[in-house]
Amino acid sequence: MLFRPLLALVLAFCLTFVAAPSSVSAAISSGAGNSDFVVGPERSNARFGGIVNTGRANDCPTIAAGSNGSISIGSGDTLSEICLHPTEVFVKLSASKRKQANFAPSKIISPSHNTTIEQVYGDISGSGTFTEKGGIDFQLITVLAPNGEEVPFVFSAKEMVVDSNGSSISAGTEFKGQTRTPSYRTSNFLDPKSRALTTGVDYAQGLVALGGDDKVLKDENIKRYIDDKGQITLSVDSVDSSSNEFAGTFVALQSADTDMGSKEARDLKITGVLYGRKS
Questions:
Q1: What is the pLDDT along the chain (279 residues), one digit of tens a residue?
Q2: Could you give the number of structural domains in the chain?
Q3: Which residue range is the domain that position 181 belongs to?
Q4: Which partner for 60 in 22, 32, 85, 208 could form a disulfide, CB atoms 3.0-4.6 Å apart?
Q5: Residue 173, exposed/middle/buried by CB under 10 A (0-12, 13-18, 19+)?
Q6: Any idea what the Cα angle at residue 223 is, between residues 93 and 232, rounded to 5°?
Q7: Any idea what DSSP says for residue 38?
Q8: How many CB atoms lie within 10 A of CB 57?
Q9: Same domain, 101 and 239
Q10: Is the overall model pTM greater than 0.70, yes or no?
C-alpha cells in the first residue's frame, strides 16, 4: 500500500518538469520580457525565460524620451535607484612618432552582462549637491584596447559628490563632481610570483645583475594599495515629474588598474546611460 503514494509523488515530480518548458515558452511567445522590462517603475513584469542570457538585466530603467517635467530638490531630499550603464569605454593610448596620445574606443570583454552600477542612493544638501551613501556602486570591468592590450579597471561611483547648482532637476540639468576609484586588486591578492601587499613573499627574484634596485623590479616587488579620484558628469535628458524619475547620459573620466603600483595607469573615458529618481 505504501507503493501508491510513492508512485503518485514521482508522477507529480515528472509532470512538474514536463510543464516547466512550456510555461517558459508561453511567457516568451506572449511577449513577457519585452521592452516593458525596463520601462516605468515596475521591473517585475518579466519572466526569467525572456531575460536570461540576453543581457537585458544589465540595462537601466528608462522613461519616455522627451519627457519635459521638473523635480524640485533641496536639503534633506534623497535621490535613489541611480543606475549607470556603461555603453562605451575609451582608452587613452600612448603617443608615438606619428600619433598623439588620444582616447580610442575599446571592447568590453569581461564581464559581458554585469557592468552596471545600480541602486545607488544619497542625500541632497546645499544648492543641489548630491552625496552618495551606498548601493551597488562599483563594477570590475576589463576592456580590449585597439592595440590588443587588456585593460582592467574599477568602474566606480563610490563617494560620488556632484553639484547641479540648482533647486530642481529638468531636461538640461547637469551634475558635475568627483568619485573615488578603489584599487582593482585587494591587499592579499597574489601575483604569479606569490607577491602581495599583506601575504605571500617579499622578494621573488633570485640573483639579479642590477642588484635588485632596478625601478621595474622594485615596482613589481613592493605592492601598494592605490586609490584614485575620477571626474563624472551626469546629464539629464528626460524627467517624469509624476513619478519623480529622470534619465539621461553620463561621462566619467578615471584611471585604469595599476596592478598594485607595478605599471602606469591608463586614462579612461566611460560614457553610458543614466537613470534615477527622487524618493
A1: 556 666 667 666 666 554 444 433 333 334 444 444 445 445 556 677 777 778 888 999 999 888 889 999 999 999 999 999 999 999 999 776 677 778 999 999 999 889 999 999 999 998 899 999 999 999 999 999 999 999 999 999 999 999 998 899 999 999 999 999 999 888 777 777 777 777 766 665 555 555 545 777 777 777 888 889 999 999 999 999 999 999 999 999 999 998 888 888 899 999 999 999 999
A2: 2
A3: 67-185+225-278
A4: 85
A5: buried
A6: 45
A7: G
A8: 16
A9: yes
A10: yes
In the numeric block, the cell 608615438 is attached to 96
DSSP-assigned beta bridge partners for residue 134: 121
The single-letter code of the amino acid at 90 is: F
Kindly list the distances between the CA atom of residue 8 and the CA atoms of 3, 4, 5, 16, 22, in Å, as whole numbers in the listed order.
Answer: 9, 6, 5, 12, 22
What cell numbers appear for 6 in the block?
Answer: 510513492
Question: Which whole-number Å values give the CA distances from 270 to 40, 130, 155, 182, 256, in the listed order?
Answer: 26, 20, 8, 16, 11
Residues 81, 35 share a domain: no
Q: Residue 251: is it exposed, middle or buried by C-beta count within 10 angstroms (0-12/13-18/19+)?
A: middle
Chain Cα centroid distance, residue 275: 13
- CATH code, 257: 2.40.160.30
